[in-house]
Amino acid sequence: MTPLITVKNLEVRAAKRNLLSIPYFEIQEGEIVGIMGPNGAGKSTFIKALSLLEKPAQGTIFYKNQNISDELTLKMRRKFAVAMQQPLLLDTTVFQNVAIGLKLRNYPRQEVTQKVLFWLEKFRIGHLAKKHAAHLSGGEAQRVNLARAMVLEPEVLFLDEPFSALDFPTKVQLLKDIKSIIGQTKTTTVFVSHDLMELKYLAETLAILIDGELKQTGSTSEVLSSPNASASTFINDWKSLLQ
User: Which positions make up the signal peptide (predicted)?
Assistant: First the structure.
């Protein structure tokens, strides 16, 4: 099976320092990939490079066997959607926040309305359509953020710690909902988190990133139950915190 995304010899640098060095990495179509590592490991940098928001210093990214490393174009970026930890919502209503991407792509007004209302309902926030974004709770704002990403029907959804600022009950319900939605749409998803509970629940594949390097990649259950020498200290430290 040809991977949807393949990374070869990817390097990202800043001020002559390597932030990321990935010899090889691949993502299958429909896969949910979790990326975990300590603070400063390069997780957000990896997401930005994969989603074409940051141009790597060197290396190649293939999308369906097509080299897209130099294709930082609007057309290519529109295959991807990114939801960050902070929703960064616009100073307007929930409806308009979710609609903005479709409007920028010149969708007909009636289609915009249909799609926005559909995704507001999927994320259980249809009743908030006319509410101003400034008056939302943290959980509501993150639901708007995710609906704004999914309304674009991306081929790949990138999630950069979207649940980390939420209280536990809010996080659990949103995790259930996003897992159901990703499963229904079969959206390929790359999910960055520092929370083992989130990753065990959502990710089928887990990649451990430390100091800008991938230390282990495999099925989530395999990586957590049998970490290799490079990843074991980090994973075992996390497990001890959960006990």
Answer: none
